[in-house]
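Chapter review: from sequence to fold.
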Amino acid sequence: MAPTDETGQLAPHTAPSGPTPPERPPADGAAVAPPVRMPRWLPRALVLALSLYAVFQLGSWAFHQLTGLLINILIAFFLALAVEPAVSWMASRGVRRGLATALVFLAVMVATAGFVTLLGSMLAGQIIKIVEDFPEYLDSVINWVNGHFHTELRRVDVQEGLLRSDWLRTYVQNSATGVLDVSAQVLGGLFQLLTIALFSFYFAADGPRLRRAICSVLPPARQAEVLRAWEIAVDKTGGYIYSRGLMALISGIAHYILLEALGVPYAPVLAVWVGLVSQFIPTIGTYLAGALPMLVAFTVDPWYALWVLAFVVVYQQFENYMLQPKLTSRTVDIHPAVAFGSVIVGTALLGAVGALIAIPAVATLQAFLGAYVKRYAVTDDPRVQGHRRARPVATTRAWWSGVRQRPAPGAESGAAGRGVAGSSAVAGGPTAGGGPTDGEPTVPGQGVDADGDSDAGSTGRPGGSSS
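The token string follows.
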């Protein structure tokens, strides 16, 4: 029976007196691991990593939401750089900078509005003429088909077939439902143009203030670099606009000659349209520029439209591969391959906007980085000019002499020995002329020519002696 104390509870077990025996190790012989504790820095590191991830996600979302606004600001900045020379010229003549900027923008807007109005009236008149003359065009096409293919088509049958066709009904329905989408796109485009014009006006009018604000947060050395980069950007953008204007002039003259030769009406206006649209609207500008002359030429003669199409395609290839690289390399001072590659990269990144500003941006970056690249004088080596390095004449003659003295495979040793001995005798012997002896290899530069004279190699002296 277990012992109890006075209260009736079990008495605690007391260890017997004497030394405490040591603890036995585990049966499997493994050591007992200490308790694992979480490092103190781990919670803070987790919180910091989660915070950085949240900030990154928030910044990425904000950037995607503001991409359109950032692109508009970028376009406005380059437009401000383009009008900067004119504004600075007027400001240097005593005109207030804000008024000078307003006058420049007003002149651009008036010229654009006048051109669009003239072009719109011409286009409306041509469309009305095409609609009125459509029955005659249809009759001529039907007569041509009946005469060549021996058919009996009539205009009434063709018109009824077109009016009762399912694709025409579907096209009308889709056009009616897409009117709202087109209206929304037009309003969005007008708002985008207003935003670009407003930002470009502020950038041009407050250019000195903007430069002063940027330089105020930079040390003096960095301020000089920023001002130099700004000046380079103005020069390169102006050069790019100049090159585009020159290409527009050349394109307009070429298309005017064609349209005038074909007798197409409104040839001067159409030439100006082709020059401006094809040069200042990237990617799709060429197709927009060529569509209107083709439409007007179709009203004169349907075959004239094909002539205009062929000329537009051929001239576009000439401009892309011959004219544009040359003018761009001269005015913007970049290599034609770099200009072509920059346009491709800009189109891939920002679409039409990237194609428009790629060349001045790359030219500015190239000119700015060129000031920090250390250049050295190029060595006078023919390989720099693309020529192979010529072997010296003496070395070539010595090599050819060695080849002539080398015994042919399978020849008798006696004949080889006589040949070598003869060479030594002509050269003055092995001691006098230093010629090769029997069984020794031929030394380059000490052979014998066909006329019996000893070749001295690089020394140029007979007998192979050197001073």
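Two observations follow directly from the output. DSSP finds 17 helices and no strands in the chain. The CA atoms of residues 436 and 443 lie 7 Å apart.
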